[in-house]
Amino acid sequence: MNHHPTTNHDEDDDEDSMSLIPIVIEKTGRGERAYDIYSRLLNDRIIFVTGGIGDGMANTVVAQLLFLANEDPKAEISMYINSPGGSVTAGLGVVDTMRFVPCPVATYIIGQAASMGSVIACSGTKGRRFALPNAENLMHQPLLGGVMEGQATDLEIEARHILRMREQLYAIYSEQTGMSTERIAEICERNTWLTAPQMKEHGLIDQVLTKLPTKVA
Questions:
Q1: What is the pLDDT of residue 147?
Q2: With 50 as the cut, is the pLDDT of residue 15 above it?
Q3: Are 105 and 125 in contact (CB under 8 A)?
Q4: Residue 217 lies in a domain
Q5: What's the predicted TM-score (pTM) here?
Q6: How many whole angstroms from its chain centre is CA 168?
Q7: Is 9 a catalytic residue?
Q8: Can you give the CATH number for the domain in which 45 is found?
């Protein structure tokens, strides 16, 4: 997770990715209606957190959470996560909104929940946090992205900021897993990759899923 993240996305790559999003055609009483697959799944209260976590992606997820909470404040929201991590501040915005909305939020790790993605995944409603069998989870300390330049006083301020941010993240992990902040600090001292069963052992998830639930929502 980066304190000051940099984006490496190529605009052409983003356009190519958008062109690959499937379109779903549904028949209604008024004829046919076309949706992109993500909009269709949003109708079923399914949200995706995929790719690097930045302000744009986080704002979209926050907007979807608020929209679904307004639609039905009691119905569960399903969040599917496959992310290498990214901005701490953007990710914490997602975590805060997950707690802010009255709906239970179920989290499903597919592929990986690394760095800030790990924090988001474990912040789902307790008892409703899942991972698929081959999913991975990465826990580590927040990273300071880019090359720091400036006066010594400014660098000291930045250092204090990232240390405070680290304590915030450790507190979230501790609250969601039941582990002490000291134990969290030991785990995050170096990059720690966890398998799906290990995630359950550490309290990051509640169950490893091998089959799709009867209703994905």
A1: 58
A2: no
A3: yes
A4: no
A5: 0.86
A6: 16
A7: no
A8: 3.90.226.10
Which residues, 6+ apart, have CB-to-CB distance to 208 below 8 Å?
A: 130, 131, 132, 133, 196, 197, 199, 200
Is 3 assigned a catalytic role? no
In one letter, which amino acid is 216?
V
Query: How far is Cα 47 from Cα 81, in angstroms, rounded to an integer?
Result: 9
pLDDT digits (tens, 9 = 90+) for 97-107: 999 999 999 99
What CA–CA distance (Å, rounded) separates 166 from 186? 13
CA distances in angstroms from 37 to 26, 93, 164, 179, listed in the order given? 11, 25, 39, 38
- Domain with 95 in it: 21-205
E-assigned strands of 37-97? 46-50, 77-83
Residue 8 maps to a domain? no
Residues facing 143 on adjacent strands: 2
Structure letter (DSSP) for residue 152: H
Distance in angstroms (rounded) separating the CA atoms of residues 10 and 54: 15
Catalytic residue among 3, 87, 118, 140: 140
Domain tally for the chain? Answer: 1
Which is catalytic among the residues 78, 87, 115, 123?
A: 115
Residue 3 located in a structural domain: no
Give the CA radius of gyration of the chain.
18
Higher-pLDDT residue of 47, 15:
47
Strand partners, 23: 36
9 domain residue, yes or no? no
Is 39:22 a contact under the CB 8 Å cutoff?
A: no
DSSP state of 125: P
User: Can you tell me the distance from the alpha carbon of 12 to that of 40, in angstroms, rounded to the nearest whole number?
Assistant: 25
Report yes or no: 191 and 142 within 8 Å, Cβ to Cβ. Answer: no
Q: How many residues would you count in the chain?
A: 217
